[in-house]
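Hi F.,

I've been meaning to write this up properly since the lab meeting, where we talked about keeping a consistent format for the predictions we share between groups. The idea is simple: the sequence comes first, exactly as it goes in, then the structure tokens exactly as they come out, then a line or two of notes. No screenshots and no reformatting. I'm using this chain as the first example so we have something concrete to point to.
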Amino acid sequence: MELKKQIFSKKIGAYRLYFTTKRNYIPLELAISYYKALISRFKKYIPDTGGLAKKIGKEAVADIKFTFGPSIYKQMKSLKDNPISRVHLESFRSFYPVYDPFSPEIEISIVNIDTKGKSATFRFKNSPFLSETKDFDYHIYIICGITEGILERELKTNVFCEIKEIHPSDKKEDAYFDLIIKLN
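Output, unedited:
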């Protein structure tokens, strides 16, 4: 296995310890703390209204390795073959957690769907990025860009996503952000 680069070893005293070259687990709490530190420093040193963070998120879609499970992939494939409709907007809730690994317990509700079924407003609650400050709101804009990029790629149509409101709160149940998705 060492020859295949699947493991490596270190000699420590009289012992040789073996380690896997593929590290599959980083505690979520640790990953979030590192990510929050980076996001808040980017905001501090590169102040922006979120447009740059959204652009970065949208362009990152090409480089991030998303893994849609068979049921999500099947659902996305069926959406491609149908006219853009309310169903596309409602199905968004089921595949969103796939590309926001920092928010596995996020709650998504539909606040509004227009009468033509071409746009919807979604409310996100229970995000670790909705504390009492807006220090981490770049994450929300990055996710907005990723959402736009994935939907455009998968649905092969123009999509516009925007953040309508970010409402941080020291009370977790009162914190939320609203995201609008418009389909052409």
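Notes:
The first helix runs from residue 28 to 45.
Residues 48-183 form a domain with the Muramoyl-pentapeptide Carboxypeptidase; domain 2 fold (CATH 3.30.1380.20).

If this format works for you, I'll send the rest the same way.

G.
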